[in-house]
Amino acid sequence: VQLQASGGGLVQTGGSLTLSCAASGRTIWMGWFRQAPGKEREGVATISVSGNRVYYTESVKGRFTISRDNAKNTVYLQMNNLKPEDTAVYYCAAGSGILWRTNWSTKTEYDHWGQGTQVTVSS
Predict the structure, then answer these.
(1) Which residue stretches of the chain have pLDDT < 70?
(2) 3-state DSSP of the chain
(3) Alpha-carbon distance 92 to 94, whole Å?
(4) How far is Cα of residue 89 from the mean position of the Cα atoms in its chain?
(5) How far is CA 60 from CA 93, 102, 111, in A?
(6) How far apart are the two ends of the chain, measured CA to CA in Å?
(7) How far apart are CA 53 and CA 35, in angstroms?
(8) What is the pLDDT of residue 46?
(9) Residue 109 has what pLDDT?
(10) Which of 47, 64, 97, 102 is 20 to 30 A from residue 109's alpha carbon, by CA?
(11) Predicted local confidence at residue 123, as pLDDT
């Protein structure tokens, strides 16, 4: 499976962006990670194939929404009320295992990764 992320850009604090990630085939779990300069890549959100299980990192709860369209093999990340600390390269990822609250943000649980898209939030 190949993943193609898009939708990044420059936005002011409080603004919104929607990221998209198109997969070349069917996926089970799809997630978003981000990596800021000098920091480890961290999990942002993930969603199950049915969409009935989603997990978010604490810092984005209430601001970001992950969703998917299985007919298009695409996952979205709607980001509202963006803050400068959200600035990072955002990566989408796909996993075929079983994810729970305890392991959804573990990078090794994901088999496929997209190329990343830059999100910059100016203060």
Answers:
(1) none
(2) CCEEEECCEEEECCCCEEEEEEECCCCCEEEEEEECCCCCCEEEEEECCCCCCEEECHHHCCCEEEEEECCCCEEEEEECCCCHHHCEEEEEEEECCCCCCCCCCCHHHCCEECCCEEEEEEC
(3) 7
(4) 10
(5) 18, 17, 24
(6) 37
(7) 24
(8) 98
(9) 94
(10) 64
(11) 92
Nearest alpha-carbon partner for 59 in 97, 32, 38: 32
Give ∠ CA 27-29-31 in degrees, rounded to 5: 110
User: Would you state the structure tokens that stand for residue 114, as one six-digit string?
Assistant: 């997209």
d(CA 66, CA 90): 13
pLDDT score, position 98: 86
Which pLDDT score, from 0 to 100, does residue 40 have? 97
Q: Side-chain half-sphere of 2: how many Cα atoms within 13 Å?
A: 2
Alpha carbon separation from 108 to 11, 65, 121 (Å, rounded) = 31, 23, 28
14 phi and psi angles, rounded to 5 deg: 90, -10
